[in-house]
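Supplementary Data S3. Sequence and structure tokens for construct A.
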Amino acid sequence: MTSSEPSPALVVSSASERDPRICVITLNRPERRNAFDNEMADAFADAVDAFENDSQFRVAILRGNGPIFCSGMDLGAFAKGERPGLDSANGFAHFVRRPRRKPMIAAVQGGAHAGGFEIVLACDLAVAEASAKFSLPEVKRGIIAAGGGAVRLPQRIPAVIAREMLFTGNAIEAERAYELGLLNAVADAGKLEDAAYNLAAQIVGNAPLAVLASKQVADDALTAGEAVAWHTNRRGWDTVLASNDALEGALAFKERRLPDWTGS
């Protein structure tokens, strides 16, 4: 790319070629494993707003360009002081706590890690390729899964498994995620788009108002007990954010070395 050529959009949104009632939102920063900095978070917020406000769209498929769905927060940007949405009312990527009226399906290739996995948890439904992996490795970087991982994962799967993922930062594979109820379907290689579309097509085939009302009721039932957890989440994030270990974790990752934890 020459200096005169415009940079590609960090988030691309368009109607599906298969059905114009389905919106396809694509995270488009493959050279950074679709990791979020402030600019990308703002672009994502605009794309979600456009989907919500366009009466043509009834459901969205969220995908990632490149070999991986999303690796979470750009730790290089974090080390420079960026906090992509984490200090906003809507949370990481301006998305994980954002009120939404319409259903959204995450379509995961490669993997969803850290904030990328938290985005999946914030979506209504999810499908993944069989080779995909999921993890919350924040403790390996000196921070916590403050984008909803520590809040939502224990609500979705057995607590001991959620704690293992949160405390070790280790990944699980797509089949295991499906067994635990984190995915609606696991697709063979090259079939992810079909799996996401088939699910979206079933949704748009139903009564629009009934789908919206059903989502609202289901969301309220799930989030009624989250208020206290989000408050605790905020306190935990503030604590680690002020620590030396948070910066050390980001720098060690960027410099490809083992972190030197001080516990301070």
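Construct B, processed identically:
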Amino acid sequence: MSHPSFPGPRGLARHAWLPLAAAMCLILLAGCGRKAPDADAAVPVIAMPVKATDGSIAGRFPGEVHARYEMPVSFRMAGRLIERYVDPGEQVKQGQPLALLDPADPSQELSYAKAVLDAAEHRLLFATQQRDRDEAQFKQNLISQLQLQQTQDSYASALAGRDQARQQYKLAQSTTLVADHDGIITSRQAEVGQVLAAGQTVFGFAQSGEREVYVDVSESRVGDIAIGRAATVTLPALPGHTYAARVREIAPAADAQSRTYLVKLTVDHADASLQLGMTADVALEGVKSSDSAITIPATALFHQGEHPAVWVVQPSDSKLDLRPVTVARYGEHDVLITEGLKAGERIVMQGVHAVSAGEKVTPIAPPHPEDAPQ
């Protein structure tokens, strides 16, 4: 009787490799149909050539109208706020109530102020009696001139201490916050029911009267400005109105973030139409103009550490180069460049944080025409 023959170990191994070999061939064939990725493929970026701007713009700066005196308003004692009588934007008069503390909260401070006043009045009574007695004895030549002067000094000190304690007691009795001057409430910093510390801000306050315009000047332009420099102020909200102004103050140090210097200008003959918070265009006299001024969108500005820079597309190989620039003015939507760029050079307008130096790119236009530089 014949038995079926079975393959040996070597035959089994040979048959087991056949499906695996077939699968590897299919993978290799599929791979041959694909194109290897190009390491030098250009990345599309929104980039446009820049245009020269009128150099006279370098002497103009965007600004904002402020009050000459702006200050926080607060209670001089701690307590719980139970009432607010005004809101931001309201005009207030001197002596007008603004807010109220819970009268029960300052009772301990009031008791302490009363005790201090009682002690001061007792010291004053003793000093008065001593002064009267020494003056009588001096007339009889019983004490020296020096001793009389010391007694009189003690009396004057006790009188000043009593007046100070009386003032503190008066303040402790008052739980109503009142306006010290005519002005406008610019902000609210505390809510009803909130427990306030002594001196904690309740309102922002702008005093009536003088008006100023604040502008930010780059470090490359601040050297052209001096105290007393004349300027002309115009406002988009008040067409046809022009105000004369002069530089009153220049910040001694640059802002840590923007690296610009705050310049305050006092407006001459400011009228009621000059409202707080209005945007202004300030033309400073004597600021050097630039024949190579270029305006770029704010989205095109990149910071290399603390220094501003832009990504320039090299025309020879379409690769990116990070170039330092000098900013003359920061606007709301654009930036004025006076050094580092030339008209016609192509720069990255958007996505400046998604590219790197030496990267090859393909410049494309912005998806919205209004985003292109004017």
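The helical segments are 9-32, 107-139, 145-173. The radius of gyration is 39 Å.
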